[in-house]
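Checklist before submission:
- one chain only
- standard amino acids only
- sequence pasted in full

Submission:
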Amino acid sequence: MRTPEALDLLDREVEVALLDERLARMGDGLGGIVWLEGEAGIGKSALAGVAVAEARLRGWQVFVSAGEPLTQPLPLWVLMDCLQVRSQVAGTGTGDPRRAAVVAALRGSAQRWQPTPVDQLGAARELLLDLVEGLCAAGPTLVVLDDLHWADDATLQVWRRGFDLVDQLPLLLVSASRPDPSRPALADLRAEVTRRGGWVVPVAPLSRIAETELVRRALGAVPGPRLLQLTAAAAGNPFFLHEIMAGIAAGIAAGEALRREGGRVDLSADAMASRVSSSSGGRAIRAGLELADPRQLSWLRVMAVLGTHGDVVELASVLGSSTMDVESALSAGLKSGLIVATDGGWRFRHPLIRDAVYEQTPAALRVALHRQAAVSLAGAGASVATIGGHLLATDDLADDWALDWLAQNAGALAHRAPEAAAELLRRSSANLPAGDLRRQALERAMVTVAFLRADYEQTERRARQILAHTDHPAVFADVTWELAYTFLRLGRYDDGLAAVSDALSRTLDDVWRARMGALRAVILVYAGRDQAADEAATAAGLAATQAGDAVAHGYASYARFLVAYNRRDHQAALGHLDDGLASLGEDPHAAELSLMLLGNRGVVLQSMGRMPEARVAMAESVRLAERASSATLGFNRLVLAAHLFITGNWDDALAELALVDTEISPVAAVRVHGMSAVIFGHRGDRAAAAAHVAAAPSRHELTGHGLRSATFLLLAEAMLAERQTGAAAAYEILTAVLDDEDVVPNHAELLHPRLVRLALAVGDQNTAQIALERMRQANTANATATTQAAVCQCDALLGGEPEPLLAAIDEARKADFPIFLAEALEDAAAVLAGRAALDGAQEALGEAVEIYTALGADWDVRRADARLRALGLRRGVRGPRDRPTRGWAALTPTEQRVAHFVTTGMSNVDIADQLVLSRHTVRTHVSSILAKLGVASRAAIVREMPTPRVAS
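Returned file contents:
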């Protein structure tokens, strides 16, 4: 790229060269991040324009937009504008289904009751990232966000998430921002650019030499001292320098004389005196506006209220003019070029011009214009976010129109723009008396806002305020539901039950009585009161059928599933799940409940040994939850991760676990860190395993559902203790599984055989016998291949007889559970060796070690060797085989399949659909593939493939 000769790029050779280098990398399939930073008017936009022009010249995809002060409270506004999603909203888009999906997510259905409020913004964020990935699959893509300092926090979050894509896609993210240390989110994002290896480019004022050259080119002669004195007021700011020069040109056109002497040009003394009062660029703009005729100035003020740009129809609506009149005025060059006509719209020539117009408008007039815009745009069918943004700019929300509009649209605004809604609802509700129905609607929406922001303290406080004074049964029930659900998420089960019981003691219609009964049943299960939960769920199910309410029926089915699953009655559990899913159908208002049911369906199918069906159900639940940004996403990931662990896909399991937010709940944190620690423990990475154990909540503080979920954490602690100090320490830890006879831990088949082995190693026959009996109890309700095998395994270890172990191995082979089978084989080898049946022992140990090695379970190989060596059995070559860490052979089977699809040009989203994985998991696999192959781009993966095709 050559340095353009435009005046705007004088003294910018270094910055242009950097952009040139970034664009060259993108042509090689590599992405990047550039952050241009400097004061207003310093030339950031001109530099971004260099990248835009070059990318378009190369035929690449280019998307450009800029933040604005007025749209900062409106989530994702600038990004939707940039990616041409707003045109889809206006009905002028191309009909792209990916953009239509974003629109649908944001519109949602907030006016109808939902069991749990849907995070429409979260869903839109995910879909926008899907859109970007899909665009990059079509070729190199440049995305430019100017004036990023005005962008809303949701846009900043998506921009940060976009940093994850540049390492894998030909995607260049260029942003331009003013320094704003008062905004932590912006400062954090800037720091992230540096941390990710992006370029932060300070755009400095022009040097005095460059200033002089700019004036020389503009006037065609070397400027004299008076001119230079005048232009020095711009302080090296190109925009202000242009405005000063424009003022000089206007003066010359009006007859102002320039003096030319000896190749120099300068102002006369009189002209200089008249220019001093408007010598800075800002004053030059304001002085020019003072000369505008009243009608033009009134139009400019309306435009400034609408933003830096807009469309003709919107402007005509607010002005009360016809679109033809507006188009005519724009084509005539309204206000001497301060406004530029665009295709179907208009924009200010520079954001600073819009700022000057807006600031010059009297405050009272600005407020009136914003209200006028809100009323006009509401009548024209504009989005609630747009109207809410204008109402935010007013200082009086006491008039009936604003209060009526907010009362009618509070729910939709809460979902579309929670932060803006919180402020508007706070200000407007104070203007209404307690008995006004509009105030009740506003306060109700404030509960939803707090819930969506995960501000559970505010959710509880505001909900209790409403419950204390409302006499409307439906409102009481609605708010109670949200309050009780908050307590359920926080693990405050007694508080949740108290809230639901209070509601049930009041007058409720049949629908709400069924719903409250179903929610009570769910909370009872989580509190560990299965019998009471079963009775409550049965009653709620009958009430739901009589009331004809699918949501109540769905929650009752969920509670009955949980009880049946805890009792190990998998056939009944599956029936309850299918019943719940059938009752909900495709109702989007119950999406979160449907996702919980679908994820758990995979769990039950897994327990029944139907592994392929389980994998499909679990992976589908993750993909759907990811797209919907559902609160169930963490749960669905954990379910899938456990399945991947069981089936021996440990790298895939770690990829899923790394994406789970451990702040969701203590139970989630216990599962994430426990399972991760077990995998690292099996693989011999003691430091990583110990770090995860240390990061997990204490299992001693868990009760009910949480205690059942602590299996992996308990295993990890025992593994670390056995490796560090021996069997006795591990035995002491695992005896905790026997503390509560009523709690059957998840994956008991992993715990009890190990406890029996350890108890026998320390000479505690009694504990080993109790562990066997508990395993039999777990297997009694509904036997599976693994639970039946675990019973045989425990029995054989206690009796020292090989026959039950051989039966256990036969059962274990029926289940796709490699680590369980390997441990059963290792135990069989030990029992056979004790019986001097060395050939059979050798064969069992060899197969166990093969499985351990395939899993990368180095610690298990070493432990098995040491254990069997003590019994006189040696394998020959001891120790695990080294696994390659670089090259194609280092890729896991899943990574090889992903790599194959990458070479076909598929995006991560498409690969996820093909392999029934989540997009985030595919991205994790691609990162691992790049690292193992030692390449920097997806394009380079093609060159590393050893064969033309890998079987999928």
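Reviewer check: DSSP finds 49 helices and eleven strands in the chain.
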